[in-house]
């Protein structure tokens, strides 16, 4: 099947670009991956699947209206931050985090503007980071997400309940023992939490979506989730947070980014990626505790921080090499070790 | 009248540069605008007018002593952050925010050093932002202002009362209805708050000061204030905060910056500026709520953040073009749409 | 004595590089300075001396494994942030801040990873700052230290007591009068606090260690400590915080950095350095009050912030000139005024 056949289609190109946008949340420039991810979201809650589509469309349309660079839009890179900011705004203002709630009209306007704003933030961060051969990653989403989540709590027109979702490890009981389900649910939900899905089956479906485009990246996602979960267990993280995937979702993203997507995959970069996953898991706890007093979730800030600090200076380390292509698709082609 | 006749005068040049410094708070490289702004401040409180002069002199003298680039000094660009930091330190340590209080000697030394420090911060931020064709805006003021406001509360020698001024929307009653004065006072005070003036007449006088140099920028200032106020009203912002101009001052600055000062004014950039004004208004509420626990005011941080995120990546969007001249004076000459 | 004879020695080079790493905390690319500093730490507590060695080894080995640039490693520049992060993690998790406590195995693993992570952070910040001819200073330590200190409080496996050390001026009594010991202890401890040593004799030993390599920098360290202490006294800082060296350690570092290390030493840059020391002292109080609600110490954040803001824009000021050599060793050779 030729996956690129709609990419420059006169009318369907937009569907193709938007699906790639969904896929780019996990670095997959592939419309089929995006489609399977939407299915994984719908498995958990059709509301989230619909919001994800709304977010990706808002930010991609904004890029079109502003006449952004076509090559960047074609890769779905203007879409993924919009998708995430939409999901986050609904997730953290819904009474039930797991299923989400249908947003009000005022909230939809707000959400669409937030998603559109990520397009500008993405271009700005991209311009600043370009000389250092480093990508904005999900920082536009994290920054815009935080800023828009705060304001939401103070506008009458938006009916935000108290944030129902625990956002920090110290909000979980410390006496619950680890069981088998802690492990297989925790690892799956770690992947699910990347898209705010409290559902381990959705998580494993997303792994399949990644594997459709790159088996190596799918393996790195699982490895990162395992590392994050094991680190939490060894250092005594509460069972509820582990099973909820909270210690693992940043680790999974960091492992993918460093293990093949932005660095050529070798034994050294594999160890580098595992190290990054360990740090990401510790720092999730750190940032969560820092943000708890103001009631903000960590989002993917730990992943971005760790990955930036491990990529910006890559030129100083001769044992690392950038992945050979600008287009982060299939690390299979870049394995050198 | 030749407005530039004192600009290189052997002894009066410093008066000219300082007045331009006052004007540059609202992007006006024009000594007459600066003079009218000082009159607008004096209309509200002669103390603020005097502090504004002290601040602009401190930072401009520092630039002279350090032998800064003459062209930059001549445009008043080393002065405006010093003026603002002086006003902020007095405003937030006075028992009566509206009139301000005459500062103690220890406070004057402190304030002069803070204003001098903005000169170094301006040069540093300017150097970092130069490759991206983006200006430091009022970030030196925001950063130095926050840092110096915190310390002030803990030094015995500086007699700081409790911060009397509400700094966040949730400090206002939510049950007061909107009346006609909410609108005309709120819009005027939005402009006044740029200079910490709780006075709507001073605000409209500042609009006149801007119009003396650029009618387009004056119109954008009003448009931004209107947008910020309307957005707050639609989303249920409390009447007291709206009438106080708090939802509007960042919007007014963002609208000016994007609507003619840094981007060539076209229909597209006009919409871009209105979008920025909407976001600035929402994010004022957001940052205010974030900062309230530590008792800090938002200052113009929202304007800087939104404008940076909408300007740094301007090169990626073909539908935007930079204003044709480096010297942000009269957008009339750059209208292309 | 040829101080460089072990620098390229086939087996002892690592000892040389590590000792330089210790010296680089106070800008001394000199193994003998590093050795005397370790002795100064051991005078106060052998635990801190051992932890300092562990930290510097962890980050330097990481640089070797990643094949970092040899010239940078030879100067000890990959070591000093690791040394500091190790000291900070032990200091702020020990029941007795003054002596420190022997860390658990889980803590040692954590600490070694944190020190290793500073190596990556140093390379990344170095890459970002390189175009502006500005060094990362101790920012890798500050950032990694903050992030790792937070998480530590929530992991069962790491037995962190309540942070025993006061971290903010308002935690000290305001009624204790200044005595003679306030001064000579406060100035000495200001230098000691750079390495978390609550010991004024250790502080003066560190001054000797600096003087072994550069008498000018040793003098600037003392001058900075004096300025920080005097400023605190004039503005009514509590005696306990002054005697503890808390108002002075950032000032001492700023004075060294601006007075000879990064700027050529002239009368103008001497005044510039004194101004920076004044600001650093004020802002220590400011950042301490900002961080107190979340229980975090200031570390050397004020020094980094002030020095960056006074160095990044140096090119804009004709009255300043960079120190003539890249290698910050002996400012004696660069005095121009």
TrEMBL record, chains A, B, C:
Pfam families named among the record's database cross-references: UT
Localisation per UniProt entry: Cell membrane
Primary location class: membrane
TM segment ranges: 46-66, 78-94, 100-123, 135-153, 204-235, 247-265, 271-291, 298-317
InterPro entries on file: Ammonium/urea_transptr, Urea_transporter
A single cellular component GO annotation: plasma membrane
Gene3D superfamilies, alphabetized: Ammonium transporter AmtB like domains
Single GO MF descriptor: urea transmembrane transporter activity
Site (Important for channel permeability): 300
Membrane topology, as annotated: Multi-pass membrane protein
UniProt family annotation: Belongs to the urea transporter family.
Protein name as catalogued: Urea transporter
Organism per entry: Rhizobium metallidurans
């Amino acid at each position: 099947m030729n996956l690129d056949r709609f990419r420059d289609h006169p009318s369907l190109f937009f569907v193709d670009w938007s699906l790639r946008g969904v896929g780019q949340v996990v670095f997959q420039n592939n419309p089929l991956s995006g489609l399977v991810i939407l299915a994984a979201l719908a498995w958990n809650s059709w509301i989230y699947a619909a919001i994800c589509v709304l977010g990706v469309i808002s930010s991609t349309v904004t890029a079109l209206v502003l006449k952004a660079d076509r090559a960047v839009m074609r890769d779905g890179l203007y879409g993924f931050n919009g998708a995430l900011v939409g999901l986050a705004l609904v997730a953290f203002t819904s009474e039930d985090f797991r299923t989400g709630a249908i947003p009000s009209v005022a909230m939809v306007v707000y959400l669409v503007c937030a998603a559109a704003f990520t397009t500008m933030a993405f271009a700005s961060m991209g311009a600043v980071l370009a000389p250092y051969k480093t990508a904005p990653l999900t920082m536009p989403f994290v920054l815009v997400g935080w800023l828009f989540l705060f304001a939401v709590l103070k506008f009458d027109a938006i009916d935000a309940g108290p944030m129902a979702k625990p956002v920090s490890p110290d909000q979980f009981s410390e006496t619950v023992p680890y069981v088998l389900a802690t492990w297989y649910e925790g690892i799956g939900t770690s992947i699910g939490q990347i898209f705010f899905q409290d559902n381990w089956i959705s998580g494993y479906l997303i792994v399949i979506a990644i594997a459709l485009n790159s088996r190596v990246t799918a393996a790195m996602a699982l490895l990162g989730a395992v590392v994050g979960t094991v680190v939490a267990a060894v250092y005594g993280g509460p069972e509820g947070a582990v099973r909820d995937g909270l210690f693992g979702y940043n680790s999974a993203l960091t492992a993918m980014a460093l293990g093949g997507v932005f660095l050529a995959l070798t034994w050294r970069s594999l160890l580098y990626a595992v190290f990054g996953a360990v740090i990401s898991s510790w720092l999730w706890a750190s940032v969560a505790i820092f943000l708890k007093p103001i009631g903000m979730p960590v989002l993917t800030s730990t992943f971005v921080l760790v990955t930036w600090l491990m990529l910006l200076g890559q030129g100083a380390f001769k044992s690392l090499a950038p992945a050979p292509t600008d287009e982060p698709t299939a690390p299979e082609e870049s394995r050198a070790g």
